[in-house]
Amino acid sequence: MGTPREPKPAKYFVALLSSDSELLTIVESDLAAILGVVDNRSEILPWTASTFYEKEMGAGLLRRFLSFEPLASPGELAQIKLLTQHVEDKYRDKTADHPGRRVNIDPGYIDAFKVALASTKDAGQRLYLHSGIYAEATLMYFDGAFHGLAYTYADYLWPATLAFLTSLRSVYVDQLRRFG
Fold first, then answer.
1. How are the residues of the chain apportioned to helix, strand and coil, as percentages rounded to the nearest 5?
2. Number of domains in the chain
3. How far apart are CA 18 and CA 169, in angstroms?
4. pLDDT computed for residue 83 by the predictor
5. Among candidates 111, 110, 125, which has minimal Cα distance to 65?
6. Is 146 in contact with 164 (CB distance < 8 Å)?
């Protein structure tokens, strides 16, 4: 019989999506208030994965990832998702002819074995956490690299995304060695 233990802390990040490159920078202070100091930023990439968000957010969408210095319990993922939804609401376009989000914020974390993402949508590969929030392992780390799964979002398989997440995992492992 195993003994329940708290997991090692994880390294949190967010995936941002917006057609406004300035807004990608503006929301950083709101996110830092939730997750701590931003310690890394990906380059801003044109969103080419799908047209799913265009009706709500417009064309010309941009993707950026941010990571945060403090390590935190993976058990905080649902609460962090709820808090990031408040940030999305803060910047929502409230005009009658185009109500909708101006920024999409998807939090997740990296640990030694995976990249986990939070979602408000249920699916076969997702596990319910609480308060309407689900989680999924979207990338697995083995043989020295991240590997996608059948349901992994296309942008998480982009070379630039994998390079950012691989670098982030190295920072995480170093943080564990120094402080854990």
1. 35, 35, 35
2. 1
3. 25
4. 98
5. 110
6. no
H-run or E-run covering 139: strand 133-142
144 located within any domain: yes
- Domain extent for 147: 11-179
Average pLDDT across the chain, whole number: 94
Q: What is the pLDDT of residues 31-44, one digit of tens each?
A: 999 999 999 999 99
The predicted pLDDT at position 48 comes to 87
Q: What are phi and psi of 60, to 5 degrees?
A: 70, 35
Q: How far apart are CA 29 and CA 34, in angstroms?
A: 9
Structure confidence at residue 54 (pLDDT): 81
This prediction has a pTM of 0.94
Domain-located, residue 5 = no
31's tokens: 């996110």
Tokens standing for residue 73:
């319990």
Q: Would you say residue 1 lies in a domain?
A: no
Q: Which two tokens stand for residue 154?
A: 């296309």
Q: pLDDT digits over 84-128, tens only?
A: 999 999 999 877 666 688 999 999 999 999 999 999 999 999 999
Nearby residues of 61 by Cβ (< 8 Å), 6 or more positions away: 17, 18, 19, 46, 47, 53, 54
pLDDT of residue 11: 98
CB atoms within 10 A of CB 152: 19
Whether 67 contacts 102, CB under 8 Å = no
